Amino acid sequence: MNDVQKIDNTYNRNYLRAEYNFAHASAQMASRWEQFAADGDRYNLQYRTANDGSVRPEHAALHGVTLPPSDPFWQSYFPPNGWNCRCTAVQVLKDKYPETPHDEAEKRAANALSRDHRGMFRFNPGIQRKTFPDYNPYTISRCRDCDIAKGNLNLAFIPEYEQCAACKLVRKCFEGKTRKSELKRIEENRKLYDKLSKDKRYKDVEFDPKNGALKATHIGHNEGTDKGFVFEKKLVDMLFACGHSIILCDEQKKDRNGNKLRSLDMILDGVRMDIKSITKNKDYYGYAIDKKNQQLVDFNNRSDVHEPADTICIYFDDPTMFAPEKISKGYEYMVSMGRAVPTVRHIICAINSAKGLELKTYDFP
After folding, report:
1. 10-29 pLDDT, tens per residue?
2. Do 89 and 78 contact (CB within 8 A), yes or no?
3. Per-residue confidence (pLDDT) for residue 13, from 0 to 100
4. Is the pLDDT of residue 148 over 80?
5. Residue 97 has pLDDT above 90, yes or no
6. Which of 43-47, 143-147, 149-153, 230-234 has the lowest mean pLDDT?
7. Which of 40, 96, 243, 265 has the largest CB neighbor count within 10 A?
8. What count of other Cβ atoms lies within 10 Å of the Cβ of residue 333?
């Protein structure tokens, strides 16, 4: 907000405040609508302004309009009906206030909102459950019937000029994927959830049917209270919130002689890998990568491993500690040390940035 105000303090201060006031008023009126809806048509609703000298004439013309909640009028003209609008609606006794003829109410409302060419204010936040309508000064007309805005993931082709900024961002997240492939992924995770939730070896099994997110923890997975374990849990929760599938693996498995076998931390979207949380800022992370490479080597040498692992995940809770060159230099350091065959082929960097969780993948020959 401070950065924006530097461009034009007066202009942006007024506009930002108007937007805030509108969102706040919409939320308040949506709450009131919920209360009105619970009573049905037991009472009528009456449109009221603030009834002072600051009321705009077009809104003053709506003062006193009285209709039952079921009347279509309230679907389009329930307040707020403009920037910084202070109008409200109240319940009134049917025998105390006469109903306004529907056509008369519609005519008065149409005149009041005659300059609302986009229909920005012609919606009911309580019915639509939104503080802003889908189509407003910051979106495009296509947003009125956008499946994504309605909560349905539809990635069918739409020309770029018919996409708003939010739609472009969602599509970028699903770049290279189709609606069919996403539905298939969600269904596969649902089946895996059904299986793991019945398996006594797993706990904390959760599934989000909206985005296909899945998480589960093997009872043999190492848990603790130090910073590394805290960061691991934080990472898992963020990955789950972003729609990923995360299974924390068994780390207590032993061989025939009772020796604990080398294990890896998790399976992320079907790929088995080990996690390293960065807690100290360094010029590059060669030691961490070298150590995790050895972890992969030891795991792959197990007689019961048939699909070798080649991926590690490095988590940066502090985004200032991350830099691409620190990863590439770290990999070069690991190769130069020559303590083990370079097994790491993919490094996934999970960064807890201001934008949320960012995943960056680096591939090596």
Report:
1. 666 788 888 899 999 999 99
2. yes
3. 74
4. no
5. yes
6. 149-153
7. 265
8. 16
Instruction: Give me the long-range contacts of 146-149 (CB less than 8 A, separation at least 24).
Output: none
Task: Lay out the sheet containing 88-92: strands in order across.
Answer: 66-67, 44-48, 88-92
In 3-state terms, what secondary structure has residue 161? Answer: helix
Tell me if the pTM is above 0.85: no
> Which residues is 246 bridged to in the sheet?
215, 268
Query: What six digits make up the tokens of 56?
Result: 């705009």
Residue 351: is it exposed, middle or buried by C-beta count within 10 angstroms (0-12/13-18/19+)? buried
Domains and CATH numbers, the chain: 2-133 (no CATH), 138-176 (no CATH), 179-363 (3.40.1350.120)
Burial code (b: 16+ CB inside 10 Å, e: under 16) for 314-325 equals bbbbeeebbbee
Look at the block and give the residue holding tokens 């990923």.
Answer: 244
Nearest to 88 by CA among 115, 116, 119, 55: 55
The gap from C-alpha 179 to its chain's centroid, in whole angstroms, comes to: 18
Interior angle at CA 204, CA 148 and CA 153, nearest 5 = 10
**What is the number of other CB atoms lying within 10 angstroms of the CB of residue 63?**
15
